[in-house]
Amino acid sequence: MSTSSPSPAPRAVRTWLSAVFLMIVVMTMVGGITRLTGSGLSMVVWHPLMGAIPPLSHEDWQRVFDLYKQTPQYQQVNDWMQLADFQRIFFWEYLHRFIGRSIGLVVLLPWLWFLARRQLSRKLAGQTVIMLLLGGSQGLLGWYMVKSGLVDEPRVSHFRLAAHLLLAFTVAQYVLWVRLSLSPRRGDERRVGAGVRALLVGLFALVFVQSAWGAFMAGTHAGHFASTFPDVNGHWLPQAFASGNTSLLWAMVDEVGPIHATHRLLGWTVGLVGGLTVGVLARTRAPQLTGITCLLLALLTVQVLLGILTVVMGVPISIAVAHQVGALLLLSTVTAALERARRG
C-alpha cells in the first residue's frame, strides 16, 4: 500500500471499481440470507458456466430435487420437503451463485476493454490482475466449502465458512483500497502520525478477527446458545462453557458455548478500541478524516446494537444479515480511514 500519488485513471475506471465493491456488498448480504435459510446445500452439482441457467421445466426441477434427495441434508434434516419447499431454498443459493457469476463478468469484461483501450496504467493493471485472481479464488473456495456439507454431515464446515467470508471481506477491502487510491487529492489534506495509523491497523485486525468468529457463530448456530444480555447465560468468559475435553483455545473455535462467549468478548473489545480510535481521529483534525470519523462512530454504534438484537431476539434473519453486512461496512470504513490517513 504505497503512499505515492495515485496514477491518473479515467472516471469510467473509478466507476467500475466502485460498482465491483458494491456488488461484493450485495453478495455478502445474499450469502448471509443463503446461510441463515439453510439454502447453501441445495445446489448439488456445480457448473461454473452452464449452471447459470436454472431449471425451467417441471422435469428439470424434479431431476434437481432428486439429486438433492441424495444429500445428507435432505435425508437427515429436510426429508419432509416437497418440491415447492425445495424451490424456495434453491432460489437463494441460485441467486448467490448468479451474483457471483455476474461479479465475474462485471470485473472481466470491462477489464479487457480498459486494457484494449490502454486506460490502465502498469501499476493499476497489475492491481486489477490481483483482483481477478482473488475473485476466482473466492469462487473455488465457495465450492470447496459447499462440498463439506454434501458428504456424511448435513452442514458446512464452519472453518471453511469462515475462510469463505474472510476472503470475501479481503477482496472487498482490496478493491476499495485500489478505488480510493485513485480519488483526487484535496488541497487541505494533513498527514497524520504513525501512532494513529497503527491504531487504525489494530482496529482493522480486531474487526477482521471478530468477523471470523461471526462466521463461526453462523456455521455452528451458536447465536441461539444464549439470549441474555449483557451476560451469556449468567457468565462472561468462554472458559465457563468449555467442555474440558479439549484445550480452551480449541473450544473457543469449535464448541458452541465458548464460540458465542468469545464473539461477545471480541465485540466489547472492538467497541472499546473503536471508541478510542474515533476519539484519536477527532483530535487529529485532519480534514480528510472528518467525515470518515463520524461514519466510523455511527457504524460502531449500529453494529453493537445489531449484535445485541441478533442474540436477544433469537437470530432473526433480517437483523442477523444486517449485522453481517454491518461488519463488512465497518471494516471498509476502517480501510477508508487508513487510506486517507496516509495522505497529506
Kindly list the characteristics that best describe this protein.
69% helix, 11 helices, mainly alpha
Itemize the secondary structure elements and their pairings.
Elements: H1 11-36, H2 58-69, H3 72-76, H4 83-116, H5 122-147, H6 158-181, H7 194-220, H8 248-254, H9 256-284, H10 290-312, H11 317-341
Uncertain runs: 1-7
Tell me the number of structural domains: 2
Spell out the helices and strands N to C. HHHHHHHHHHH
- Biggest β-sheet description: none
Quaternary state of the chains: single chain
Number of helices: 11
Helix content: 55-70%
Task: State mean pLDDT (0 to 100 scale).
Answer: 90
Radius of gyration: 22 Å
Strand content: under 5%
Summing up helix and strand content along with how strands pair, one would put the structural category as mainly alpha
Number of strands: 0
What general outline do the C-alpha atoms trace?
flat
Distance between the termini: 15 Å
Protein architecture, described:
With 344 residues, the protein is an all-alpha fold. It has two domains: 8-184, no CATH class; 191-344, no CATH class. It has helices spanning 11-36, 58-69, 72-76, 83-116, 122-147, 158-181, 194-220, 248-254, 256-284, 290-312, 317-341. The chain is flat. Mean pLDDT is 90; it is low at 1-7.
